[in-house]
Amino acid sequence: MKRIGAVLNPLLWVVCLMGLSIAPVTADEGRLGDELYKPYVGQPGKDVIWVPTPDAMVDEMIQAAEVGPHDLVVDLGAGDGKIAIAAALRRGARAVGIEFDPAMAALAKRNAQRAGVSDRVTIVEGDLFKVDFSQATVVTMYLLPELNMRLKPILRAMRPGTRIVSHSFGMESWSPDRRIETANASGYLWIVPANFQGLWNLDLPAGRKAKLTLKQIHQQLSGSLELDGKTIPIEEGRVTGYGLTIQFGPGGGRPLSLRGQLMNRKISGELLEAGKSQLVDGSKAGN
Ligand SMILES: C[S@@+](CC[C@H](N)C(=O)[O-])C[C@H]1O[C@@H](n2cnc3c(N)ncnc32)[C@H](O)[C@@H]1O
Asked: How much is the pTM?
């Protein structure tokens, strides 16, 4: 039997270099493989070795992504299928696990059958970089930093609102919406943001008009609002899926914030002006 320490593998190197630890396998997680195939932790894979995500982290990932029965969860590099199976078993989601290693993919299929969720879990034997997973509403992964970076443009182009959860590794300049933690492991959640960048004409009650200029980097918004002849800078602006929340800085003479949703290429929401709520409709006037 090969031991983890004996395998010179990038995931373990990254784990060591980043000071992260592979959480010890618990009694429950000790069910590695079955009578037909017994994989070992640290065994080589196409682009990354197999190390199963600990049960507590699987729970936390599913919880953070708010997985529900209407979701299609795709686990990139599915290993023994534990994340896909948990999503189906505990949250009633449909799930797909993409796994390159044929023996591991076959094990994942058998695990899904044993768990009684083979009607909702599909294991695709293939290369995660070659399978189209654009229909996913939740993507999970436990890969390597450079693999996350290769995936970043694909993930960034997914439908707004898609949740992406990564065990251990981030995506550099694409800051997560939140960090997730268990006693032994950590990870990140991103919610793919809609694109609000550009110039917006806002209609307020009683024929009042405003112009909103938005610059967007991932979930962060900057820019300004022209209202009643004043230009008021954005102090803090954030996109969460199709939603935006903006707190404006001083300049308007009163506390001002905007919250809205992108629907049919229009912003519909409310402007809070000194605590008073007014409905707002916005339409795009330029890029
Ligand atoms: C670190 S393990 C994670 C397994 C599982 N997602 C989990 O969190 O328990 C990574 C898995 O990705 C698989 N893998 C590596 N390169 C792959 C590729 N290009 N396409 C699909 N699977 C791949 C490995 O065989 C391994 O099972």
From this structure: 0.91
The CATH H-level (homologous superfamily) assignment of domain 4-191 is Vaccinia Virus protein VP39 (3.40.50.150)
pLDDT in tens, 200-235: 999 999 999 999 999 999 999 999 999 999 999 999
Q: 198-286: which CATH topology?
A: Porin (2.40.160)
Residues 6+ positions from 184 with CB-CB distance below 8 Å: 21, 23, 24, 54, 56, 57
Domain-wise residue ranges, the chain: 4-191, 198-286
Give yes or no for residue 165 CB within 6 A of ligand 1. Answer: no
CB 144, CB 14: distance < 8 Å: yes
Task: Write out pLDDT tens, residues 242-278.
Answer: 999 999 998 767 899 999 999 999 999 999 998 899 9
Ligand 1 atom 18: residue of nearest CA = 127
* Ligand 1 pocket residue status of 104, Cβ below 6 Å: yes
Q: Is 125 in the pocket of ligand 1 (CB under 6 A)?
A: no
